[in-house]
Write the structure tokens for this entry.
Amino acid sequence: METSILFIETEIVPPPITLPSREIGACVEFYGIVRELENEQPLKALEYSVYEPMASQQLARIFDDLSAPHPVRAIVFIHRLGVVPVGEASLFIRIFSAHRSEALAFCSAAIDRMKRHVPIWKRAVLDRVRV
Amino acid sequence: MLLTLLAFSIAQDQLGFREREIECNTTETPRAILARIAPTLDPTSMRVAVDCEYHDWDTPIGTARELALIPPVSGG
């Protein structure tokens, strides 16, 4: 399983699609986008921070664990850090697999686990105020 | 031995620093270290990691190099 895990401070630009093999039959992409309302409060942006060595290690383990029930061939994971304005992507995941069901299930489970275990934090940025 | 204490997000706000070197010994637990460094900080509100692995608050740190305070995470 090919895995790429990146944390970047600039706008997410998905890399060109390169099929890891000719057996790929599905490519699932997920964008997590900053929405305007968080806890009923209008936001200007979200500000993300990470404990990067641990986050990378945790993500690699999560992907490895999930590859048993949901065998996939390649994963591209990009999480943006710093201030991410409303309407822009904070998270991008691309998964390649032979069939769609594995990639879809893998993507959903990976996001669920990330939200519970991976040391990434966000703060609401209101107009000139960080909460 | 010297241990690097890392604090993130609200733990960083509460402690007033992101990183600090502290002197401790191999038999100390994360709970004891936190009580010594920041007695007002509530360990039940966060998890702790030792050398990038989640760790029990009451298990000694051994020869760890780094201890991180991990408030509830919110990536994505």
